[in-house]
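Lecture 7 notes: from sequence to structure.

We start with a single chain of 561 residues. Read the sequence below before looking at the structure.
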Amino acid sequence: MADKKRLETEQLANHRPKLGIQGPVIAWQDPWAGESSDRVMRTGTGTICPSQDPRPEPAAFAQALRRLGADFYVHHVIPGMSDYSQLLTDIAEADLEVCLGNEYGNINGPWIEGTNRYDVEDETIRQAASTGRCIGLLYDEPEHLQINAGQYRKDGWFPHWGNTDGLSLEASRERVEQAIDARGQQVRSVLERSGLPSGSMPLIAEHVFPTMFHTFARAGMDLCPKVMKESFQSLQLSTALGAASQYGRSLWICADLWGPDAGDWFTRMPGLPGHSPEEFESALKMAYYMGPTHLFVENVDVLMRHTHAGFRHTEFGDVWERFVRSFIPAHPLTWSHAQAQADIAVIHTDDANYGQNQRLFGNRTLGVEEASQSLFHIWHVLSHGTIPAHGSCMHIPGFEFPRHELKSSVALDSFPLEQGRAAVLKPMHPLWYPVRNVLAFDDQVDARQLGEPKLTLVGGVAPPSEQTFKAVVARAEAGGVVIIERKALPDDCPSKLRSSGKQGFGQWIVTEHFLDERVLETAEPFLGTGREWTQRFGHTEVRMAAKDENGFTLDFEIAAL
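Now the structure, written as tokens:
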């Protein structure tokens, strides 16, 4: 065991995520598109926002990114802009890579017929790939735009991956997977016809909600959870880690500076940034310690101001530079996200429900009857009650965002605010929600992928696959504790598994409800003290504790197991 541990450490001694910065949405005009970028909506606010700073020269901007320590640039593709040769030249000269994002097209169109989705044009893909410096196609919040199809496009109901109305829950998921697979095949075909490696530009799903990670991963996308934003961090990351592990996908992480809070920090507009510099610093460390392949910041607007005298850092830019120049070199990773292992496993059918209990996979004919609540109850238990029992992100009843007060009280043309504005409402987005070494899987996980969790919780409105059910039975027989919702038992379930009791060397608990007192008593010995959030990677455990009273900042400890 000692030799194996040493070998793993040596193999990963130089693991370092590629670091990136996403382009501006309000700070200044796109350096390569110029004035045309002021004629499209560059945010999801529903209005065209004039740029606040003078436009930098393209090469100067690329060099500024490099000075910030970026390895790659996330570029917002502007629909209709066909020649990317100058951008690609400037990126190469700055020794950067580029990832192409579809957010502007999602907001403005043109959309793929029958959807609210913009796909980067084939010729742009070919141009970018031919440089050898394009590392992916980033799809902005595709789970959100499948579920909430009217977010940007207002002329009808056009979910991101196609209409699912009238289909069952399972068929709705399959429809989404088929559309993603078809898009992946199209991109690979473009690359192959150009004589380029077919897998050189993966599709990446950037999620604000902790739903559909497994669906997208199964369909072929790499995964990119957003942290900060309006998510419960441990739930978001444990779900993304589980999906990436189960389906063998790369893990990107976006440290999204848009958020719910307001405060006395540099503020471009309400919600940008919606987190303090101190929270940002802890979030970067938290994301880094998850061992992702890529880590980037949304957006550069918050890190820098551009003046006629050049770029200058904000307090957020100072945080980023300390993280890149000081923290990372002093804290090298000896693990990667691919080594994530569960002491507690959550198994649940992916139903695309984050607490809205309707429009599952964008399907308006599916509702409360098909929407499972058990996943929310499970996370409520695992987090010592800190995550609510009625949803998996803050877009549910019970949360009031301070940024809304800022938006209603300060005119848009008054921004940016150099010292921000103290919030009337108390900040409500902490980072810390204590759970103990949890990974979340879907209903297709097999025994090898599941590993050897000490506690396994299985829920959903329908039974898992045959291989998954066999895997959880085997876990109980080998000495684990399995708590399974009665609705998750298959129709042909043996009679001995229809009730609670001993199963082999372990326990088998059948429950009607995960908030039942017996479930709480059974799970309690596995949950930890409630004073730490831990995530295990092979023989390393990342331990995170609240640094301040409310958990907006974190302390970290790296422990060898």
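The mean pLDDT is 95. Keep this in mind for problem set 3.
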